[in-house]
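WARN no homologs supplied; continuing
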Amino acid sequence: MEFGLFTEFQCPAGMREAAAFDESMAQMRAAEDLGFDAVWLAEIHFQKDRSVLASPLVVAAALATWTRRVKIGIAVQVLPLSHPLRLAEDVATVDHLTKGRLEFGVGRSGLPGHYAGFNIPYTESRERFLETLEILIKAWTQERFSHAGKHFHFHDVCVTPKPFQKPHPPLRVAATTQETYPLVGRMGLSLFVAPRTISISDLGRFVRGYHEGWTAAGHARRGDIGLSIPVYVAPTARRAREEPEASTMHFFRAISEALKKSDGASVQTDEARSARAGRLAELTYADVLREQAVFGTPEAVVDRLLELRQALGFSSLSAWMNPGGQIPHARVLTSMRLFAERVAPRLT
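OK structure emitted
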């Protein structure tokens, strides 16, 4: 199993932006030193007091020179917010700078606020996502190509450079809504799942749709699943429960509020989003520990992750060690060290 560290480059209220970059870059370097296989970078826009990670590919380029071994993953690039040709060039460039260590996760985000800020209708998110992904693959795999779609038209363009990895960096698609799982399976692409706006129990049901879509499309082998989940490891059960509580609950309350803002979403998606917002607003910390996160001593975390691997069938794990972004840096580093030394070896 592959073990990665997920980060949002947290910047809680009162922290200087420069300090936020320094702290998270230090955690990325510590991940390599501790033996993590990968680091995963979010893409977050317009959320003051949460994150400074608006440009994950720029950060990935910096990490290419700061690290030597770890894979550098994007988790995930919000495709409808980018121009596909510029994005194709940037991804290929970072792939060269990392000498093939880049993994490219893509999605469309469940937060309409991302789209409102860029003046893109959220109702277009799915069609823009699919069209942009189609263009990216053409740009990376064809010497020259043309495209005539609903949102983009290109004639006889040659995107340079082509990626270092052939035919392109590994692609992994994030799914948050139930109908997306079979779609990703039919596309034959790897899946990224995270119990944020949905529960672990829901994930178990939705993942079956991914495998059904994969099989129905006639793809060989079995679809690959990556799990991103809050993980916190402490020497005692009490510390593991208490130390991340305030930060974690802050995150779920904030996401609940963000989901309540429709910002041009369709009536159908607005209703589904409102239902998820209501569920998150009512979550207790006991609910979070049961259905949204893995917190505990090294032994307890091992046991729970083994259960989840059996239930979900994931092959890679992206551990979010600072859910909510308000856990002190030193405690995050301690959790990372305990995970690397006492959890990961028992899961390989």
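The chain has 13 helices and eleven strands.
OK
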